[in-house]
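User: EamA-like transporter family protein, Leptospira interrogans serovar Pyrogenes str. 200701872:
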Amino acid sequence: METIFRNLHRIDRSNFFSAKAIFVKLVYRYDIDSITALTLRMLFAIPFFAWIAFRSKNTKTSVNLTKKDWGLIFILGFLGFYLASLFDFIGLEYISAGLERLTLFVYPTIVLIIGSFLFKRKIKKAEMFAIFLTYSGILVAFIGDIQTEGPNATKGVLFVLASAISYSLYLVGSESLIPKLGSVRFTSYLMLISGLIVVIHFFIVRNPKNLIQPPNVYLYGLALGILTTVIPAYLTTEGIRMIGSGRAAIIGSTGPISTILLAWIFLEEPITSSGIAGTILVLTGVLWIGRKKRT
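Assistant: Predicted structure for EamA-like transporter family protein:
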């Protein structure tokens, strides 16, 4: 029962993240660029991370951080949420929400490969089989979309692929710090650093007047900040603590399925027969890895 709960825990997180591409696409309808959209997201999220960080620091179980710890937190924040988010938002300027999800969800494979090299962690046959089923399904679901995105599709895919690599490095690197700091404190500090880097970047390259937007944009920004940043960030870190980055990443692979449905509802992206076939393969892969973890 505990393992089932952990798997559902990760699926919930992936569903929150899946809504991110939808809200970003809605923001882009107001002719807003990627760094401005990302800044709005973080401006709404930073107060929550600051409040939670303050509360977690004053708990009896909190530990003092060394310079090495702070350095690693900064690197992980830079890679995992600043660069990964920036590349992802730029990519979404050129490709659909569905294709973005296809490309971004290369990251479970990258996590397992990095982990196998750094920690000599053998990739089990069940994990390899789950990867095969999951990504075969994602490929089938979006193969038609790749052909219709136009000349900018390659640029968008490359940016999102860079995002996946950055995020994978964060997932692997975070495993050593989470047990020491606890998932809540670690996430709070890391996201605060990432958010501040985003804001500094914005004020260097953009006019502050760009933050003056219609009310709907602020509503989308609030949703990006809370629903697709604050909540899934803590769920992600807790998932890594519970089952490790490699397996956690695979369980999170249901995200593209949520994106298909949300994009159909809110962005009018069609659901095709290839999408349905891909959905079946992805769910089979996720259920397979869950069954193997229980045995």
